Amino acid sequence: MRLKRSGIATLVAALVLGAPTMGAAHPLHTTLTEVNVDATTHTVRVVVRVFADDFGTALARHVHAATPPTGRAWDDAATSYLASALSIADRTNRPIALHSCGTRRSADLLWICLEGTTPESARELRGRNAILCDLFDDQVNIVQSVSGTDKHSVLFTRGDGLKRLW
After folding, report:
1. Contact criterion met (CB below 8 Å) for 163 and 128
2. Residue 166 and residue 150: Cα distance in Å, rounded?
């Protein structure tokens, strides 16, 4: 019984002492991006999952403001920031123009959608994901590419350039 209480006390102390502060509510600095390619319609859809507070900080920095913009200005800033931090290109490294297809928020997460048209001959896509790398040295961005039944994941960190997605 004494050992059990000691173990519980140790666990509680570890949880309390190791508990994140409000400023570090999510100590992992990561995004998840899914890239879906539809070869029949020659389209690519990119959905980025990101913590809303971190993305807001990035937008405020991007527009040189103390706080993130709101309304239509938020949409414009988000599109501009993502264009500077995320890119999809064909195998010759020619960029594919992406436009917004909406944003969804759930609690502290955002899902930001972008779409573009791929060249008819696109058999291979490359990508770059530097989202939030300007904020966090330990930022890791996971990109999962899906084409039909094929899936492939790639990790991006600060300083990475274009990598083959599939």
Report:
1. yes
2. 9
Q: Nearest CA to 132 among 112, 151, 152? A: 112
pLDDT in tens, 19-71: 444 445 557 899 999 999 888 899 999 999 999 999 999 999 999 999 988 98
Query: Using an 8 Å Cβ cutoff, are 95 and 88 in contact?
Result: yes
Q: Return d(Cα 160, Cα 130) in angstroms, integer.
A: 7
Q: List Cα–Cα distances, 105 to 33, 111, 114, 121, in angstroms.
A: 15, 6, 15, 35
Q: What's at 66, amino acid-wise? A: A
Which residue intervals of 63-148 are DSSP H helices? 71-85
- CA-based angle 150:154:160, to the nearest 5? 145
d(CA 19, CA 24): 9
- Here the tokens at position 90 are 């064909």
- Give the Å distances, CA to CA, from 19 to 1, 16, 61, 136, 149: 27, 5, 28, 20, 41
Give the distance between the most distant pair of CA atoms in the chain.
70
Give the predicted TM-score (pTM) of the model.
0.80
For the chain, helix (H) and strand (E) counts, in that order, are 3, 9
Give the residue among 118, 68, 23, 16 at the shortest CA–CA distance from 8.
16
Confidence band (pLDDT; 50, 70, 90) for 17? very low
